[in-house]
Amino acid sequence: MSLVFTRIRARRFFWSCALQACLCVTIVWAERPFVILQEFCAIGERVPGSAGHLEARDYIIDNLRDPQVDSFYTRGVSFFNIYKRFPGEHRIGIAAHWDSDIGCPGANDGGSGVAVLLSLADTLEKDPPEQGIDILFFDGEDVGKAELIGSQHFALHCRDEYSFVVVIDMVGDRDLQIFQEGYSVKSFPGLVDSLWEIAMRASPSTFIPAVRYYIVDDHISLIKYGIRAINVIDFDYPYWDTNEDTIDKCSAESLQKVYAFLLDLVYGNRR
Q1: pLDDT in tens, 228-269
Q2: N or C: which end of the chain has fewer CB within 10 A?
Q3: In sequence order, which ranges of the chain are alpha helices (DSSP H)?
Q4: What's the CA gap between 31 and 211, in Å, rounded?
């Protein structure tokens, strides 16, 4: 384990230097999403109530500055929603779940979203955004048949008014194609179209402006409680909820495409 993390830290230093030298933008020194994914997947399964679940919780907390941890107990298990808030007006949320299902390593299903969000949070720390942003890590999405425990708890107790929330999930697939999600379009068609315009500028071959699936994901909890939320997901992934959802099925390029979309969403013309 120590050799793996030594190599990862060496790659972190290399990519940080490469970013500062090569990118002609103000956004530098952000952690690379795939490097974070490697570390996160080294933990193993993140089933609520397990040792891996607690280790994954601590990993996320340790990689954020002054996060808020909302712990709650239900069904005989402790769950942990983790939030990082950046000040400003016209607040938006960007969310992912971080747990995994029983028998599923969850590299793409959960891990990919965590990697992108931690990388984004690192960027926001170094280059504070002008608008208010909450980075939201929901627990308990994969309990049972997508019972969405963490996002329901969040939505029930939410006191903030969000312009919108983007929920990302399964965005690390090597063959990444992200169609518009059906419930998102049904609820907020204009918002979906606006976000897809931004996404297609970042990666026109990845974000496809057509509905392919209707997915029950954390955005459903938010919509239920009146929060404008959409889902960004590539559901065409045969390893979903299996023991084959491992890091070799993911790619750095796919994570970078989604990361680039979120940077454009947050910074706009500053990019």
Answers
A1: 999 999 999 999 999 999 999 999 999 999 999 999 999 985
A2: N
A3: 2-22, 33-41, 51-62, 112-126, 149-157, 182-187, 189-202, 218-224, 252-267
A4: 32
